[in-house]
Design goal:
The protein is mainly α and about 130 residues long. Helices cover about 70% and strands about 0% of the residues. The structure holds zinc ion (ZN).
């Protein structure tokens, strides 16, 4: 899934947590669950970087304006951090991936671009609804 999708889903999980640590764990769990749902991933580094930069900019703006609880911030971080290893692997900073949905231990399912966009849009809308 896209960075922004994992970010919103992790934040939405964090709002349900009792603590920042629990928010982080729930955020990581959303990453596993979202990777199980058939989706579409970025096909180029450019769109991936745009997604990460814009997603982070919007997230930082939301933090600056609304001052969300730490459990929401940690949930969002838990949602996106597993994909750091994807970037590190792509740029050959690490030799193998270890996160279960990236190694194949847990299936990482894909679908067409259109279905993937629809699925990720639904996840983002649901996440924003939970956060609102
Ligand atoms: Zn992932």
């Amino acid at each position: 899934m896209y960075y922004s999708t994992h970010l919103v889903a992790g934040a939405a999980a964090g709002i349900m947590a009792e603590s920042p640590a629990e928010g982080f764990v729930l955020g990581v769990l959303t990453h596993v669950i979202l990777d199980l749902i058939p989706h579409h991933d970025h096909e180029s580094v450019t769109t991936c970087i745009l997604d990460c930069v814009l997603g982070t900019a919007v997230f930082l703006a939301v933090i600056a304006v609304f001052h969300p609880e730490m459990k929401i911030i940690w949930g969002a971080l838990g949602g996106v951090l597993p994909d750091i290893e994807i970037a590190m692997y792509h740029f050959r900073l690490i030799r193998k991936r270890v996160f279960p949905s990236h190694t194949g231990c847990i299936p990482h399912l894909s679908t067409t671009r259109m279905r993937g966009l629809i699925m990720q849009s639904l996840v983002i809308v649901l996440g924003l609804w939970i956060l609102s």
